[in-house]
Amino acid sequence: MAFVLHERLAADTLFVASLELCELRLMNDARFVWALLVPQRDNIRESFELPEHERTQLWQEVDLLSAFMQYHTGADKMNIGALGNMVPQLHVHVIARSREDAAWPGPVWGAGQAQPLEEDARQARLRLLQRFVDEIKGT
Description:
Strand content: 15-25%
CATH superfamily: HIT-like
CATH topology: HIT family, subunit A
Oligomer: single chain
Helix content: 25-40%
Strand order of the largest sheet: 1-2-3-5-4
Structural class: alpha+beta
């Protein structure tokens, strides 16, 4: 069976690239620099359901993305979460937080309404994440 992205993730995010394990997606919310990593596996709700080598790969991708985002955004703190209460498909949020952002110091969830990215900001964030992809793929 081919990988199918949950409809809510598809609606709220923009595709960036397929990595070794995960699909990298950009959250369409101008208030935060926010990416998601979604393992390209069907019927997985929790990381422990992945084979050990894929769990390792998932957290390597999370760590690499987090370090890249922190460096390139100047984030005060990186937030990483895999809640899955509203979307059961396993996905990991990687969010570059700033003391000046709309939700600081609280969590981003439940803090106001998402503000869709305008075209220039969307393209800039997509370019940033594509740069990450190019770096890890060595291109």
